[in-house]
Amino acid sequence: MRILLVEDEPSVAAFLYQGLSEQGYAVDLAADGLLGLTRAQATRYDCLILDQLLPGLSGLEVCRQVRAHDAGVPILMLTALGEMDDKIRGLDAGADDYLVKPFAFEELLARLRALVRRRTEAPAPPRPCTWPTSASTPPPSAWRAPARPSSSRPANLPCSSTCCATKTG
Ligand code: CA
Q1: Would you kindly state where each structural domain of the chain is located, as residue ranges?
Q2: Distance from the CA of 115 to the center of ligand 1, in angstroms?
Q3: For 42-64, what is each residue's pLDDT tens digit?
Q4: Rounded to an integer, what is the distance from CA 110 to the centroid of its chain?
Q5: How far is the centre of ligand 1, averaged over its atoms, from the C-alpha of 51 (Å)?
Q6: pTM of the full predicted structure?
């Protein structure tokens, strides 16, 4: 399982690098956005852990550019920004999940497992499109509007006497 960790804070990067390595993940580290993007485009990772505030290129921009070429790689966004707008921006940029600092390492591991599991379960081989089938398409009669009831009064019926009476006064 190969992970790219893009994090510019040395203490956080070192802590995550050590923790993930101890869990058996192969971790590549990038300390700025540009290097992160270069690595993400050069190597096929099982997951990206992306800090949002990065020198060079923001985590959001890295996320967008990675997504433009790889729709499938799971991306977990890390940030000190806990505002709703920041979370929405991260998810809109293509992140699959979002973790606000400070977070418990166990939670990061759990989210990582969930993302990777979702990815490994997801790619079913594309099946030929069979829609519409005769079974799913209603018979033509179901689409027909119900027959309109015939006029209650034949057209050649003379007016009632009250009708003519009111007209002639
Ligand atoms: Ca940062």
Answers
A1: 2-120, 130-169
A2: 22
A3: 999 999 999 999 999 999 999 99
A4: 19
A5: 6
A6: 0.71
